[in-house]
Design the sequence.
């Protein structure tokens, strides 16, 4: 029995030794096969230094709570009423209020308009046998002068027909303002005509036909009487030997 027990113990020892040897070999193989661990990379040194400054003891003190005023101190003093200014007493009676008067607007006068002739008379007048001298005088004129004289003749007859109470016998187209003659157009802005020894303002516009030389259209405007004190200044005479009708 003792011999068998010794053999059993001897077998256990040998098995344990063999197992231990196998473990040692396995551990060595694992160490050889594992990759080598690289050392950690050093951190870059940027040259910055950090310094911890301890907080001052005064800054750590808690602020003192604000003092609340007592109700008696918070109560404002009552404002003293100001004395009202004395109203001056005057013995003068109040001034009377004048009633407002609406402004008076005068009616705006419209400017007088030219009267356009519906019928022309100069051609008919020249055809009359009594106008032989007038026809001969016009033949001796040419251009703008002839057109002006023909329009003057038309103006005198238009005034005679429009104002039967007048008897115009002379016309001065340049009395106040010089006439304007341009081609077949005649414009008189400051003319004057005489009727019964008095002078009156007149304006007219006269158009002549370029082919026949006759008056084609006429418009006129009779103005107020010219004061006698202005006649001499504008070479206007009351009588030159002609008989007023």
Sequence:
């Amino acid at each position: 029995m003792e011999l068998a027990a010794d053999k059993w113990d001897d077998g256990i020892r040998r098995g344990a030794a063999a197992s231990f040897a196998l473990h040692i070999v396995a551990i060595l193989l694992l160490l050889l096969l594992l990759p080598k661990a690289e050392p950690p990379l050093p951190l870059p040194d940027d040259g910055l230094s950090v310094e911890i400054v301890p907080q001052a003891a005064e800054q750590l003190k808690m602020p003192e709570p604000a003092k609340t005023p007592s109700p008696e101190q918070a109560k404002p003093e009552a404002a003293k009423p100001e004395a009202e200014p004395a109203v001056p007493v005057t013995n003068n009676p109040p001034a009377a209020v004048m009633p407002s008067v609406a402004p008076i607007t005068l009616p705006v006068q419209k400017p007088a308009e030219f009267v356009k002739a519906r019928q022309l008379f100069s051609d008919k007048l020249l055809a009359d046998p009594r106008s032989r001298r007038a026809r001969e005088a016009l033949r001796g004129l040419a251009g703008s002068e002839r057109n002006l004289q023909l329009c003057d003749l038309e103006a005198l007859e238009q005034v005679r027909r429009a104002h039967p109470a007048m008897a115009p016998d002379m016309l001065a187209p340049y009395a106040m303002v010089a006439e304007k003659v341009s081609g077949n157009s005649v414009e008189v802005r400051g003319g004057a005509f005489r009727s019964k020894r008095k002078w009156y303002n007149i304006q007219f516009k006269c158009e002549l036909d370029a082919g026949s030389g006759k008056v084609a259209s006429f418009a006129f405007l009779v103005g107020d009487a010219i004061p006698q004190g202005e006649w001499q200044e504008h070479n206007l005479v009351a009588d030159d030997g002609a008989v007023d009708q």
Summary: Confidence is low (pLDDT under 50) at residues 40-61. The two ends are 199 Å apart (CA to CA). Residues 115-234 form a domain with the Nuclear Transport Factor 2; Chain: A, fold (CATH 3.10.450.630). The first strand starts at residue 115 and ends at 116.
